[in-house]
Amino acid sequence: MTGGRVGRSRVTVSRVGLGCAQLGNLYTPIGEAEAIATVRAAWDSGVRYFDTAPHYGLGLSERRLGDALRTLPREEYAVSTKVGRLLVPDRSGSERRDPEGFHVPADHRRVWDFTAAGIHRSLEASLLRLGLDRIDIALIHDPEDHQAPALEQAYPALHELRAQGVVGAIGVGSKQSQVLHRFVTETEIDAVMVAGRYTLLEQPALDTLLPECARRGVSVLNSGVFNSGLLAVADPHPGLPYEYAQAPGGVLARARAIAAVCARHGTTLPATALAFAAAHPAVAAVVVGAHDPEQVRRNVALAAAEPPPGEFWAELVAEGLLRPDAALPTAPVVAA
User: Fold this and answer.
1) Among the options 27, 49, 56, 198, which is catalytic?
2) pLDDT along the chain (336 residues), means of 10
3) Helix, strand or coil for residue 12?
4) Does the active-site annotation cover 56?
5) How far apart are CA 304 and CA 284, in angstroms?
């Protein structure tokens, strides 16, 4: 599953990456054995890029990912994790559940910290949880409300760590395209992780972000391509999540309209969502989450399928369900 180089770094990623928020018990808890089996299923399917963060399950995702990767050849995979939130012990929360959507005890608090010292502390803690010797890609996590310190303190710290070879590549992850665009134009990052803003459902990242990434050689790690789960099923229904909450009626109706076009052309919503998410030339990897091994195998199989023909995409455009300037897939995301 050959992927691409991340920016101008030496780090490479597979075309499909495993998003590891579910390993932190996002939405629903999963057992230790199933978490390890999910990562191993990804490995057996050819996935060689894994994305995690301290935020995911208050460190649980990083610990589980590290356990699953421990016996695998380190030079054959890349791991990204994130900085910007420190985990501070909170004994008073051990009897409560984490309020951020992860089924874990709230025995730590997330504390925003974009200082150079905070970046170093975050990466050191992540290395301990992961049990790894290095971080391949370090991403500033959700700096939307902290842009000044992220640009003026966190980025220079990562820039220096990259120069020292402590991390292989650096970047930013956000749900806001305009925030990512600012980092692309004002810094020398290697990658952006676009979360849910370049999907079959919506393409705001196409306005300025993706063209600027292509022009500057900044790699796009396209995540949230199922829009939190709404596009992950063939027949979207009420109650499915969008932006980590229940999908609004208008958004659900749009997803159902796209699914109807899929059905008319003999394909499915998740298959076309994966194919579309990888088609833009700036995209180096599509990062997809999974809560069990079967989901991993399904997603990789869909990524290896032939994309729908041109008339399918033309119908989406004609019905106002897809931007006419969007890049269209001409080959599977990965080789079968």
Assistant:
1) 56
2) 84 98 96 98 98 98 98 97 98 92 96 98 98 97 98 98 97 98 98 98 98 98 96 94 90 98 96 97 97 97 94 98 96 80
3) strand
4) yes
5) 16
